[in-house]
């Protein structure tokens, strides 16, 4: 008796919109911006990562996966933008590995596999920077900023600022960078 085994076609890999945040060395050698949109497979290791404390308090279920870099120079591995996302809400300090400047390039995605946009990343790190400014004022942790309602209010103001600053701006030839366009971007709570 002869049996024929037909090979099944590979299942289509579902892709998820994420953000790649390049370390200093990768920015310099690639000529690419610090961060941009990317797509990753739905089974990418980022989805098994933990949510940083600040994002957890803001109820934005992101995870960060270190992708590494080609460089072996420690100064090239710094990724200050992502370090801000890893601050402890009580102390304002990131864990030592993030402070040490040895992280390299990372991918950030939502654990629920919904789209995570460059504007979402930009808003999160700017929000973290504002929180760090409050720590710099020696007022202690800005507890009123650690909830989704406060971030949503901040998001709406940031979006208005971005729209106002975008008028008349663009690349040579009049093309606009889609990662800089906040016009129709939904908040991380609306995607």
Q: Main traits of this protein?
A:
alpha+beta, 4 strands, 191 residues, disordered N terminus, single chain, 4-stranded antiparallel β-sheet, 6 helices
Number of domains: 1
The first-to-last residue Cα distance is: 55 Å
Q: Give the biggest sheet.
A: 4 strands, antiparallel
Tell me the strand order in the biggest sheet: 2-1-4-3
Compute the number of helices.
6
* Form type: globular
Mean pLDDT: 85
Helical percent range? 25-40%
Strand element count: 4
Helix-strand pattern: EHEHEHHEHH
As residue ranges, the low-confidence spans are 1-9, 167-176
What Rg, in angstroms, do the CA atoms define? 19 Å
The chain-level structural class is: alpha+beta
Describe this structure in words.
The protein is of the alpha+beta class and 191 residues long. The protein has one domain (15-180). The protein has 6 helices and 4 strands; from the N terminus they run E-H-E-H-E-H-H-E-H-H. A 4-stranded antiparallel beta sheet has the order 2-1-4-3, with no helix packed on it.
Q: Would you summarize the structure shown here?
A:
The chain is α+β, with helices and mostly antiparallel strands. 31% of the residues lie in helices and 14% in strands.
Secondary structure layout:
Elements: E1 15-21, H1 24-30, E2 35-41, H2 53-57, E3 62-68, H3 80-85, H4 96-99, E4 105-110, H5 118-136, H6 148-166
Antiparallel strand pairs: 1-2, 1-4, 3-4
Region (Disordered): 164-191
